[in-house]
Amino acid sequence: MTEKKILLATDGSKPALMATKKAIEEAKAINAEVHALTIEEKAPMTLLEKKQENIAEEKYLEIKSRGSEVAKKYGEQQGVKVVEKKFESGPVVAAIIEYAKEIDPELIVVGNSGRSGWEKVRLGSVAEGIVKKASHPVLVTRVKNDDYLKDILEIARQMPLPRIEELEEIKDIDLEELEIKKQLGLAFGTLLAFLIPFFGLASMVSWAPDLAAREIIGYSLNTALFWILLIFPLGWVTAILFNQYAKRYDRAKES
Amino acid sequence: MNVIALSIVLVLVSITIGIAWYSRRWTRTTSEFYVAGQKISWVQNALALTGDYLSAASFLGVTGAIAILGIDRTWDAIGYFGGYIVLLALLAVPLRKVGKFTASEILTTRFRASKTVRTSAMLGSTIISSFYIVPQLVGAGALMQILLGWDYVFSVLIIGTIVIIYVVMGGMRATTYNAVIQAIVLWFAMLLILLLTVILFFDYNPMNIIDSVSGLVPPEVAAGMISDGAVVEGNYQEVINEVSDKLTGGADTALTPGAFAPDWMNLFALATGLVFGTAGLPHVLKRYYTVDKPKDARTSTIGVLFAIGSFYVMAIFAGLAAMVLLYPDLIGFFQAGEESVAQNMAIPLLGELVGGDVLLGLAIGGAFCAILSTVAGLLMTIGTTLTHDYYMELINPDASEKKEVFVAKLSIVATGIIAVLVALALGDQNVSFLVTLAFGIAASVFFPVLFMSVWWKGYTRQGAIATMATGLIIAVLFVVAHLVGMTSVLGLPVLVNPALYSLPSAIIAGIVVSLFTNDVGEVDKFMALAHRKEE
């Protein structure tokens, strides 16, 4: 028989912890497993922007913790099986709806931060988006009081978000396989394809000013200006060709 | 005061600041800001990169410079454009693969962290970024002059204060979105102004612009030659005829090269500084942090090339058209001593000419938003460098995120104030020219060190330090010499850009020192990381 499932969307914030607690309670009641979904949104932000946002979010949401991991730990405590699911990126609402289609849950549980009026217009609402678009029953929770959340808050506090991770793991890779010389050759080829006409223009202007000033196709368009205007399409073609060749190096060899 | 133009400017600026406020605190749902369910990250990144790049220098400076000096200043356009090819070919993908985007981080990853490395990288980054901020403020000052008739000093003080407050109060998060919007606004403002110009004055054919500037003596040159006070009056055609008659025989027309960089040394210095500068600009490299995958680094860069390339083609035509149509005005500004207007206001004035107050407002507003977001991005780069690469590494490694952001803000305020003061002193310069100097320094300090770290196994830690120090010292020396009006330093002529001396010196210093030292760092691991196969 297929197991009953409850889909929980959590980002580890206080409203989400409320939803987590509720989801686990419901799962206990109907003997289901909880799929805890966390979506890490990758907006194009620089490091400082990200840190700044972390601080701001924490202030606003009171707590920021590892969403699905907290759910799992809390589930263990309560004797409910929790399946962790993390999405690296993507619009939040769309990702939740997609995943719901995939696992066909009894219920989707999501926290509502309780914003209303202007704040809601300004910030939008994940909960509302899900209620509108989901084809499964949705339970939207509100934060009751801290007392009710005491046990899960304690777990969450022990599992704060890690500091923004920066250094990537260096794996052992065979340098020979990387064809660094060939890659450098490609880089230099690309560079020269652009720099020769670029400095060629400077050379012509410097040492063959008569040629530079010679009118070529009418409208008083001289060689120099024609060349200048030609540099742009030349750059575009060079860049596209580079991309075509560079792709090959990035495709991991199939063993 | 021009009410319509002013209102448009205010609306555009409010939108910009509104976005900063909108995305200020809580952004879990910014996804609903994007098209739901769509992944458009590389397009977004390309636009953000473009917006960061198209600053006052491109919008005001390039067109302004072409309008007063003609074809010689198209170098700025092709150089800014070509810089992205260098970046694409040599650095964009390796940096993305390593996941590091500043010289300091790259050097720390490959070699051991050392105080000297961090200090010189921090100095370089701060100097380049500050140098880039100054022209933005100069542009803003000139804008206020023509919009509100404010005094230049007053304008720069006000704008400087607004920008600093904007960044510190929370504009940080918004810089990405502002950059995206700014890219779109500037591109279409340029298109609209150029289209109307061609339709109204050049008989629907942009080639007629070229035809009508041929034989024209560039306004800055002309103004210099008729400084005896000869009055320039009449419509643009009459003035052009009169000035050209007076000065017939002069070889320097708008379409013959030589008005700005008169000899091969100056020309090659400018070309070198520009084309290698982009790949050394800290705020441009930082932007790649937001690119998700190596292949996105390529596609985003190609997107940028198309966006800025088409923009600069338009800017060249718009600049030349402005030279013709604003001929008497431009000479008049020089004669009246209003250099900052003459140097940088061609595009807003052209907008006013073809589209009245509405386009004047759009051009000024667009430029204003460009300045706001570029300066914001630069200040953030400085903030990040000073805290993340320096403070956190050398002074207080255990600082909390909160403290780190606080220190960043503090350094942002301090640098902002310094930039405002320098901008006050350089008000009569062309914005794009000042930016080319920042490019020249970047080309000498960070481009060579990043290039050699990423591609040369024999590069050593001492070699890297030698590269940065040599590049920085020589570049700054010649920039300062140029700005204070010296004609030669150490027996070498002072050129329009330091890069002809400083870039080769930096590379040679790096090679020579590397050959005599042997600390190549964790070169195998680093090379594997930088050049691994990953899409």
TrEMBL record, chain A:
Identify one Pfam family in the record. DUF485
What keywords sit in the KW lines? Membrane, Transmembrane, Transmembrane helix
Source domain of life is Archaea
Spell out the SUPFAM superfamilies in the cross-references. Adenine nucleotide alpha hydrolases-like (SSF52402)
- The UspA domain sits at 4-142
Q: Membrane spanning segments where?
A: 184-205, 225-246
Give the protein family: Belongs to the universal stress protein A family.
Output this protein's name.
Nucleotide-binding protein UspA family
This chain's source organism reads Methanonatronarchaeum thermophilum
TrEMBL record, chain B:
Which Pfam families does this chain map to?
Answer: SSF
Share an example GO biological-process annotation for this protein. plasma membrane acetate transport
Please indicate if the UniProt record lists Amino-acid biosynthesis as a keyword: no
Q: Does the keyword Transmembrane helix apply?
A: yes
One GO molecular function term of this record is: symporter activity
Where is the protein localized? Cell membrane
Question: Major place of localization?
Answer: membrane
Q: How does it sit in the membrane?
A: Multi-pass membrane protein
One Gene Ontology cellular component: plasma membrane
Give the record's keywords alphabetically.
Answer: Cell membrane, Ion transport, Membrane, Sodium, Symport, Transmembrane, Transmembrane helix, Transport
Which sequence ranges are marked TM in the entry? 6-23, 53-71, 77-95, 116-134, 146-168, 180-202, 264-281, 302-327, 358-386, 406-427, 433-456, 468-492, 498-517
Write out the similarity annotation: Belongs to the sodium:solute symporter (SSF) (TC 2.A.21) family.
The protein, known as: Na+(Or H+)/acetate symporter ActP
